[in-house]
């Protein structure tokens, strides 16, 4: 053998073969900052592209199920529950995603993927209202995405 | 908090975390109506795009495995068996898809996705024979897609 | 060479390299037969799993974009528009999917995939109302799925 | 027809069939806040799961190409370039994703999907260092994700 | 800014925005070595799992279309043709995959992905015949996978 | 019924519903032959497209998780570990992929898919160095892909 490249060529899934099958729950949340007009259009269901929040829930739920395709070292998991909820404030929407799973590894990445994709879908639905006259987004932000809680049943 | 939108923003997977891991079987069937010439071309393996029924079986099997990507609130499942069979009549083909799974939820959606995608693939393979001189499909139909039986081992 | 297997080993995409890039439109429709109570629950947005029709539109739209992954000999296409609409009758829902594309091949398979997946998603959302006391579906059917019109700009 | 449900059942891709094929560029950025020890472990390539930043670039690039699967109303696009860069600060990493495309619609959602998935992958790679003794993430945040610039060639 | 990591964090798609839209063709081939009994079972269509070669063609065709999902720095492409052919020898099968595309970049990776996945599918179909009494594969090999020719129309 | 087509229309997953849930491990390996200059450029991390080996590990790991999407009759599996390693020789690179799983079926196809996609990604990363002045690949080969060992815990 000529050479063995280690530190740069490594990216390895954690081996969870010997872990216990227990109930695991994770909750993640995050915000999207929007113009006040946009928030009102969402509440009154006047957005041209359609029902913003249901579309975002569906997108976030599908994305949470795709986590192991998106995050290279995540294990494929038969998750048993995904739920996504919103709280609407005057200038922002908060999304919360809870994921449950009975198996060998935690599901915080699944919850984070669910939240970020729900928020990205909100953004996509309201692009035409959020853009300024030059086609830029001076206000729109996705922010404060975090894991609220991670639980592992004893 | 400014507002809480419920009825329109809801789409929620059923939480199956506490369900039992038992054997579940589902069988679905459906039909595609075709011209009699098309049926004969399929039986005699004379269709230009290739082997219609094997291609349809492969497509339906792969689709059944993709059910949780296609149907937003379906759980990702390690299904343990998919089989697809055809019965050929003078003016229609019947497809039957059986799916098995050992786990926490039924697999009728997987069987339905398998059947519909097998039938859609039949359609795609015979498009050039089914189309009329204006490029329309006056005869082709996918019809009577239903769940034949759903079994849950006690 | 020992042998050359043709008739059974063939499944071949049509070569569209030399086709013109023109606007192509296809419209497909289909029905799901449901209990009258289910129809009322959908209209009144009382279905436990959530907003049935918006979830079905989102699922059908995403599925139409996945057509070349589902139907083996379909070409991957940058489709330029997908829209899905419903008409609700006393005992059935009709879905119509229109797909547009500027390119080298027609989009009727995309429209058919959009319709069938929208209808399958309706089924999934109302499973608990449609099932009888033995967990079977005596009434639910997806039926009369067809291509309404296929247009190719001159 | 019995009823026609509009406001709740609508979610519609913008029809871009008639738009011009021009060069479009979008740049998005975002941050992940991390412990200082984690930042040092990344710079010194001492993270147990492997090369954090290259893994994040690969994940973000693949995710940008999956945008139309993740965001329901995004069009499938033959994007012509994706690049992802990082700037590393004492307590945070900034990711910037630039996407180019020659076609009928802008690519800011692709750039945002690239950034968020690169940052989520950083998180996944350093989970064991970021977690506290109770398995929680008191410091980790993905924040200030925004579109820096969107350009459309005249 | 604290640091800028370059050599390890780089993985960048080639920017093809300014390349010409011309016809591109690539042909790749490869072999799978099999037991003579397995070859005979394939020719006589006696393999328990089903039609080996058609299933392999369908799998290879679908995989070629997925190239940009599998190979991180490949561009998503609307390929216009995929065809896969086999030549059967006494102790091996040769697969050839030809891919065509009208656009800004070559398609040799697509042809290679088509060939390798067709050969992997052959392997999967004949596993039970190829395995020895200890469940090992002493003979089976995929080998000599190469690009036969790459053409770019002037 | 008019006819029943069997031998040509069959492609059937093995039913593993009754198999035991035990630990299963598989290791596969394979080689890519490259120019000596290319090998040196990889070792010295001078390849223009970026970090070749880490990108290949990430691609191979993601591909191993996609096995049931690529190989039609493979079961979807919650694999518990994937690792990919390289040995570098003067004119070739050897990739080894090990996959673990606790469940009802072996994972040799997953290991083979991991190896081949890691090697294909190496190829893609070094295309510009491997091509000759006519854009052809006179030296590059993927070869000797085999299953090294398959273990099933008693």
Structure description:
The structure is a homohexamer of 154-residue chains. Chain A is α+β, with helices and mostly antiparallel strands. Chain A is built from 5 helices and 4 strands. In chain A, strands 2-3-1-4 form a 4-stranded antiparallel sheet, with helices on one face. In chain A, a hairpin with a 3-residue loop joins strand 2 (81-88) and strand 3 (92-103). In chain A, helix 2 packs antiparallel against helix 4 (108-125). Chain A is globular, with a radius of gyration of 19 Å. In chain A, 60% of the residues are buried. At the C-E interface, loops of C face helix 1, helix 2, strand 2 and strand 3 of E. Strand 4 (141-152) of chain A pairs antiparallel with strand 4 (141-152) of chain D.
Element layout with pairings:
6 copies of one chain form a homohexamer.
Chain A: E1 22-33, H1 36-43, H2 52-65, H3 67-70, E2 81-88, E3 92-103, H4 108-125, H5 127-130, E4 141-152
Antiparallel strand pairs in A: 1-3, 1-4, 2-3
Helix pairs in contact in A: 2-4
């Amino acid at each position: 053998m000529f050479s063995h490249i280690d530190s740069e060529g490594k990216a390895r899934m954690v081996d969870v073969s010997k872990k216990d099958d227990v109930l695991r729950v994770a909750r993640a949340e995050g915000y999207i900052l929007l113009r006040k007009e946009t928030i009102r259009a969402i509440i009154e269901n006047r957005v041209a592209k359609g029902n913003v929040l249901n579309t975002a829930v569906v997108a976030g739920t599908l994305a949470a199920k795709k986590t192991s395709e998106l995050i290279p070292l995540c294990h494929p998991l038969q998750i048993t529950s995904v739920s996504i909820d919103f709280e609407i404030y005057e200038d922002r929407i908060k999304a919360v995603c809870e994921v449950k799973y009975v198996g060998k590894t935690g599901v915080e990445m699944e919850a984070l993927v669910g939240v970020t994709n729900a928020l990205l879908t909100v953004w996509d639905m309201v692009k035409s209202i959020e853009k300024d006259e030059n086609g830029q987004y001076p206000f729109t932000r996705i922010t404060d995405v975090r894991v609220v809680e991670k639980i592992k049943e004893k």
